[in-house]
Amino acid sequence: MGIAGHLIELVKEKYKDCLYIDGMPEDKSNVAFYVKHGFQEFEGAGCIIICNPGKKE
């Protein structure tokens, strides 16, 4: 895992109790990177979101 991947995992850990973590990557070509780390893309919008990342049912 590279530096960017590690930073994403730190953000997910810090905000694990939040209902959502969302973002809008500046370049849509980066969306795949976030999807690789558990985020979902809003259909064609380039926005990313992860819901309840720290809560496993």
Chain-wise SSE layout:
Blueprint: H1 3-14, E1 20-23, H2 31-36, E2 40-41, E3 48-51
Antiparallel strand pairs: 1-3, 2-3
InterPro entries: Acyl_CoA_acyltransferase (IPR016181)
Organism: Holdemanella biformis DSM 3989
Protein name: N-acetyltransferase domain-containing protein
Instruction: Give the helix proportion (percent range).
Output: 25-40%
| Secondary-structure element string | HEHEE
Q: Runs with pLDDT <50, length 5+?
A: none
Shape: globular
* Largest pleated sheet: 3 strands, antiparallel
Describe the strand arrangement of the main beta sheet, using strand numbers: 1-3-2
Q: Count the E strands.
A: 3
End-to-end distance, in Å?
A: 26 Å
Coarse structural class: alpha+beta
pLDDT averaged residue by residue: 85
Helix count from the secondary structure assignment: 2
Tell me the radius of gyration: 11 Å
Number of domains: 1
Strand content: 15-25%
Protein name: N-acetyltransferase domain-containing protein
InterPro entries: Acyl_CoA_acyltransferase
Organism: Holdemanella biformis DSM 3989
Could you characterize what this model shows?
This protein has 57 residues and is α+β, with helices and mostly antiparallel strands. It has one domain. Helices cover 32% and strands 18% of the residues. The chain has two helices and three strands, in the order H-E-H-E-E. Strands 1-3-2 form a three-stranded antiparallel β-sheet. A hairpin with a 6-residue loop joins strand 2 (40-41) and strand 3. The longest helix has 12 residues, at 3-14. The protein is globular. The mean pLDDT is 85.
